[in-house]
Amino acid sequence: MSSWDENYDLHAKKRKNQALLNAKKEEQTLAEVYEMIRDASSKETARAIQDSESPTALDQKRIIRLLVRKGWSKNEITYECQRIFGNDVLIKPEKLEDDRMPISKYKRFIMFSIFGAYYLLRKAKQGQMKTALKNAKAVSQNLNQQDKLKTTEHQKIVEEAESLNHLKEDVFKKLHMK
Question: Could you say which protein family the record assigns here (predicted)?
């Protein structure tokens, strides 16, 4: 046997094994989806399509088999069934795969930890913060006093300028000039 024949046989075995794995995975996905989806024509809210042989259930099974063969995930198949047959066909939402990002799975824990650490650090520095607040208040009071002095000085200058303008106007009136 040549090396080409050996490679061909090896690849054929790999393809056969891969096909068997894919078939098992498809069967498992079919079984899981059949358990999650309700027969859309049934009056019972908990009757899964795996137990039903109504025309609607057969249509649902056909669509699900087609989508599984195309390689769709459980979530995608479920969303498609909800789109076609209505939102109430999902009877076991806990079996859906959690496709959120890892950080969003633990968002509450992370937020609680961050705010907890912030609160503890704030309490630890509270003694330092009190003195800093007192200093800041003293500085702001000094700035307010300086602002008041500046505004009073500014008002005095404006008043002097206005009185000078009145004097000029009086002088021009007496001299009959404009």
Answer: Belongs to the CcmH/CycL/Ccl2/NrfF family.
Q: What are phi and psi of 48, to 5 degrees?
A: -75, 155
Phi, then psi, of 46 in degrees rounded to 5: -110, 15
pLDDT digits (tens, 9 = 90+) for 110-156: 777 787 767 767 766 776 667 767 777 788 888 888 887 778 887 88
Rounded to whole angstroms, the Cα distance separating 178 from 174 reads 10
- CB atoms closer than 10 angstroms to residue 111: 10
| 80-120 pLDDT, tens digit each | 988 988 888 888 877 777 665 566 667 777 777 787 767 76
64 in Cβ contact with 48 (< 8 Å): no
Cβ atoms of 91 and 39 closer than 8 Å: no
- The Cα-based distances of 166 to 109, 149, 154, 157, 162 in angstroms read 73, 26, 19, 14, 6
- Angle at alpha carbon of residue 90, lines to 89 and 94, rounded to 5°: 175
